[in-house]
Design brief:
Mean pLDDT: 87
Number of strands: 3
Helix content: 40-55%
Strand content: 5-15%
Strand order of the largest sheet: 1-3-2
Structural class: mainly alpha
Shape: globular
Order of helices and strands: HEHHEEHHH
Low-confidence stretches: none
Largest sheet: 3 strands, antiparallel
Radius of gyration: 15 Å
Number of helices: 6
Length: about 140
């Protein structure tokens, strides 16, 4: 339970009854970036889209996750909780197809490979993404 007595949402499971969502242009761009980079952390998404508020970023990404537009992975950690790592979700495939002009089957294939990536390659990809973001 949180401080207000509400049951706390699991960070690993989607909400059974997510609140409504009206997709914004930035949401579509976030999904496209998550696809193009394969993996992005919340802080990387904030840097790419100039989102200054951590809470606002977390709330929006949670909505995208609960509705299936993005999936989440987590780094293993010894102490505390790790930052979420976002991968394109199934419901994001048609949106990315529309944004990029790519075939949905090709996007789905790359998405599957991202979901099955091993931890060591995930860390490497996140470091490469940090470098790419700093250049952009």
């Amino acid at each position: 339970m949180d401080k207000s007595g509400n049951k706390r949402k699991s960070r690993y499971k989607r909400s059974d009854a997510p609140t409504g969502i009206a997709l914004q242009e930035r949401d579509r761009k976030i999904m496209t970036a998550v696809y193009e980079y394969r993996f992005l952390t919340r802080s990387q998404i904030q840097r790419l889209f100039d989102i200054n508020c951590v809470t606002r970023a977390n709330v929006r990404l949670r909505k995208l996750f609960d509705h299936g537009y993005v999936d989440r992975r987590f780094r293993p950690t010894v102490v505390g909780t790790s930052e979420s790592i976002y991968v394109l979700g199934k419901k994001g495939i048609p949106i990315v197809s529309q944004m990029t002009g790519m075939q949905e089957k090709d996007i789905a294939s790359i998405r599957r490979s991202a979901l099955s990536a091993k931890e060591h390659s995930l860390e490497h990809d996140l470091l490469v993404n940090d470098f790419r973001i700093s250049i952009e």
